[in-house]
From TrEMBL:
Matching InterPro entries: PorP/SprF_Bacteroidetes
Protein name, as recorded: Type IX secretion system membrane protein PorP/SprF
Keywords tagged on the record: Signal
Species whose genome carries this gene: Nemorincola caseinilytica
Keyword flag Signal: yes
NCBIfam families recorded: T9SS_PorP_fam
Signal peptide per UniProt: 1-22
Pfam family, one: PorP_SprF
Length: 319
């Protein structure tokens, strides 16, 4: 990969709020099924043991474009026969490659939940480590003696922590969070210090389910993001989604992302325990001439030990 292409790729990643050398948060089209990654207050909100895996192949056709994968697990803690458990816990592992850079995130989650009438207010924390590596030797430099790119980074450890609040009821949810409070340096090389610092991201999300009839439900929802590290600040970026839920088993949705892209989502509750989803991103920005689309796949498994939690076979959760 040439240095020029690598830097252009990082600039596009920063502009679309995907992680670059100055970015710290993972981003997914199916954010409604990955809330744990950006809001620890979501921990245990499904009231069952949930395991979810997601793979995202971004901007196919572009050499070095981001590829991400994550697995999350979360559940309420305590006697599962209790109608409500105040404490929830979980964990996640996430990895991403972009150009010559590699990231791996290991996170633990904790949430304390309060029932307020027919709502639940969940306050969550997360903490863990990220490893960062950069193989600059793969770059085709225009100046081969450029000292900035002569020292590879191998397994740098970057600790971090985050916090979030998540409020939800039967038909709605809302939350705010800061997934990464610390602004670590990916690379402490002086010439890169201004651009190799993690950017702190701020998230806000909300959604509401409208029941049209016994067959159809409509759910509009939004995820807003802002990031800055004092020196570099990215513009507000948001996903505006509208989804239709049919027979409580099939979800079909469309999303507009303010960085000029559209996304289609299909999600199916295949069995009581297993759900699968697919999303496709279509860019309408200048990068479209190089991009062949972004693909995202989600697979989830719910360990349901108390059958009374679901009184009918139609068990899809809208959020």
């Amino acid at each position: 990969m040439s240095l020029r292409r690598y830097l252009i790729l990082l600039l596009f990643c920063a502009g679309t709020f995907t992680k670059a050398s100055a970015q710290s948060d993972l981003h997914y089209t199916m954010f409604l099924y990955n809330k744990l990654l950006y809001n620890p207050g979501y921990t245990g909100s499904r009231d069952v043991t949930s395991i979810n895996a997601c793979y995202r192949n971004q901007w196919t056709g572009i050499n070095g474009a981001p590829k991400t994968f994550n697995v999350t697990l979360d559940a309420p803690v305590g006697n599962y026969m209790r109608p409500f458990r105040k404490v929830a816990a979980g964990g996640s592992i996430s990895s991403e490659s972009i150009g010559v850079e590699r990231y791996t995130n290991l996170m633990g989650y904790y949430a304390y939940r309060l029932r307020i009438k027919d709502m639940v207010l969940s306050m969550g924390l997360r903490g863990g480590l990220k490893t960062y590596s950069a193989d600059y030797g793969q770059l085709n430099l225009s100046q081969m003696n450029d000292a900035t790119f002569t020292r590879d980074v191998r397994g740098a450890l970057l600790p971090n922590a985050g916090a979030g609040v998540y409020l939800y009821g039967e038909n709605f949810y809302a939350g705010v969070s800061v997934p990464n409070l610390f602004q670590n340096y990916y690379d402490k090389t002086q010439s890169l210090a201004s651009v190799a610092k993690e950017i702190r991201g701020y998230y806000g999300c909300a959604g509401y389910v409208f029941t049209v009839n016994d067959i159809v439900k409509i759910e509009p929802q939004v995820l807003m993001r802002y990031a800055g590290n004092g020196k570099y600040n990215l513009p507000f970026n948001g996903d505006l989604n509208v989804s239709g839920i049919f027979y409580d088993r099939l979800l079909v949705g469309v999303t507009y992302r303010t960085d000029m892209s559209f996304e289609g989502i299909v999600h199916i509750q295949a069995t009581r325990n297993i759900n699968v989803g697919y999303a496709y991103d279509y860019l309408v920005s200048g990068l479209r001439q190089y991009d062949k689309g972004t693909h995202e796949i989600v697979v989830g498994f719910d360990l349901i030990r108390d059958n009374s939690k679901y009184v009918t076979p139609r068990i899809i959760r809208a959020f």
